[in-house]
Amino acid sequence: MERAWAVLQTVLDPEVPALSVCDLGIVREVIEHADGLEVVLTPTYSGCPATEVIERDVLAAIESAGLGPARATLRRAPAWTTDWISAEGRRKLAEYGIAPPGAVPREQQVQPVRFFGRRIDASAPNCPRCGSEQTERLSAFGATACKALYRCLACREPFEHFKPI
C-alpha cells in the first residue's frame, strides 16, 4: 500500500501541475482487493473537466509501477473541500503563484452564489509573490471554476487564489 501511495504522489493535477492528486486530497483511499487495487477518488467538484484525465493518469501510474491491475472509483460524497489540500500542497500552491485557501469557517460552508463588483476585502488572500495584504479580487473565476483572480495593489501583479469551499 505504501508503494501505491508513493506512486500516486507523482501523479500531477492536470490543471495545477505543481500539485499531486494526493496534495489536493483527491485520492481518498487505496484499497487492496484479491483482484487488484482500487483507488478511490473525489473530484474537486462534480463537473470538473479534469476528472477523466486524473482517473486515467492514476491508473496508468499504478500500472507502470507494476502494481496493477487497478480500478478507480469516484466517490462524490462527502464532497471535496479545500480543507483536504495538504500543508505541502498549500506550500506548493504559493510557490506556483496561486494563493492557497484558508480554512472555511463553519458558518460560511454553505453559501449561495453571489456576484460582486471589485472591492478590497480584509479577508482577501495575501499576494503569493510579495506577501502584501493589500489585494483585490478582479474576478470570482480564474482559469478554472475552483480559482478566483486577484491583483496585488503593492506589486500590481495578478494572481490566482484557490477558493476555499
Question: Can you offer a commentary on this structure?
Answer:
By secondary structure, this protein is an alpha/beta fold. The chain folds into 2 domains: 2-80, 2-Layer Sandwich (GMP Synthetase, Chain A, domain 3), CATH 3.30.300; 98-162, Single Sheet (N-terminal domain of TfIIb), CATH 2.20.25. It has 3 helices and 7 strands, in the order αββαβαββββ. Helix 2 (51-64) links the parallel strand 2 (36-41) and strand 3. The longest helix is centred in the middle third of the chain and has 14 residues, at 51-64. The two termini are 30 Å apart.
- The count of strands amounts to 7
Q: pLDDT average, as an integer?
A: 88
Range of helix content: 10-25%
Q: Please compute the radius of gyration using only Cα atoms.
A: 17 Å
Strand and helix layout:
Layout: H1 2-8, E1 27-33, E2 36-41, H2 51-64, E3 70-74, H3 87-96, E4 98-99, E5 135-139, E6 147-152, E7 158-162
Parallel strand pairs: 2-3, 4-7
Antiparallel strand pairs: 1-2, 5-6, 6-7
